[in-house]
Amino acid sequence: MTPVLIAAASLAGRRWGPAVSGWLVGLPFTSAPIAFFLAREEGPSFAATAAAGTMAGAVSQAGFCVAYAWTAKRARWPSAVVAGSAAFIVSTVALQRLPFGLAMLALVAAAGMTIAVAAMPASSVIAPAATPLPWWDLPLRMVVATAFVVGLTALAARLGARLTGLLAPFPLYAAILTVFAHTMHGAAAATAVLRGLILGLFAFAAFFFVLATLLPTAGMAVGFSPPSSPRSSPRRSRSPRSRDAAHSNAAPSSTTRGSPRRW
């Protein structure tokens, strides 16, 4: 699923420009599969704690965006990536030490993203470019994103739920999009990608807030499955007493045609 989602976001960005691609990669294309695999392999409680960390990690993503955008105004993309990654690491370390619960982390995330939107440098409107990309561009993006999902899931037990959640939103794919935009179209295009990413982070944080709320009590069936899933069907929750009552109430209508009716 991850390669398909990444490919769709890449093609949409090529069609409608860097700002749209940035907004799309703000959606949990890599973090949501990580949360699903954590819930399946480590249990819903572990995944819920990781989801809360991932929600808070939106602040680290926003810090990456702000640091990259300002550095890109006066430096090339390698220096901007280093600055953005440093901001992400500093924010992650700070969030790891906060003794807050889910509600307070949600407030921290909302405040951090709002500040990041205001802190982004101004950029001119970038029109979609028709510059052809190399043939290996899209496959490379798909492979890198999938490798990140698989690798972080495999290391989850060693890193712990909170740290795994905080690392899951590292903007790996967004960084790839931003570097390509920076290299081919300049710092303004890179800033447009990152501004779209920050706006998409509000939906990202809301997704993981709901997931962290539902997983401990409702489990994977409600957290990930569609409403029509057989696992969430109400027929499974009927008690033996209610089934016996249903059978006894249905008994008079089960007589065969022609048999004497008993009163």
Provide keyphrases for this structure.
263 residues
SSE map:
Blueprint: H1 2-16, H2 18-25, H3 31-42, H4 44-56, H5 58-72, H6 77-96, H7 102-119, H8 137-154, H9 156-159, H10 161-167, H11 172-185, H12 187-223, H13 240-250
Report on this model:
The chain is mostly helical. 73% of the residues lie in helices and 0% in strands. It has one domain (2-221). It has 13 helices and no strands. Helix 3 packs parallel to helix 12 and helix 7 runs antiparallel to helix 12 (187-223). The radius of gyration is 24 Å and the shape is globular.
Q: What gross morphology would you assign?
A: globular
The count of β-strands is 0
* Major sheet description: none
pLDDT below 50 for ≥5 consecutive residues: which ranges? Answer: 227-243, 245-263
Instruction: Please tell me the total number of domains.
Output: 1
> What class, by secondary structure content?
mainly alpha
Q: How much strand?
A: under 5%
For the record, give the distance between the C-alpha atoms at the N and C termini, rounded to a whole number.
Answer: 60 Å
**Strand-and-helix sequence, N→C?**
HHHHHHHHHHHHH
Rg on CA atoms, Å: 24 Å
Instruction: Give the count of helical stretches.
Output: 13
Helix content: over 70%
The overall average pLDDT, rounded, is 75
